[in-house]
Give the backbone structure.
Amino acid sequence: MSVKRSPIVSEFETQALADSHDGWFRRKVEESLADARGVVAHDQVMADVEAIISEAEARRRSDD
């Protein structure tokens, strides 16, 4: 079941916190857009994540 959120109620306690988060988010977007490293294919990212998960699971099994 999904929860309907009011567009009037903020998840931040104060407007200053909301503004701070907005500024942080905008800076992160600008940094990302300016990143010259280029894009990574979705399939490559998913393969990397799967490898990380598999390694973590193998370590957990060896610790048991």
Q: What stands out?
A: Residues 19 and 25 are 10 Å apart (CA to CA).
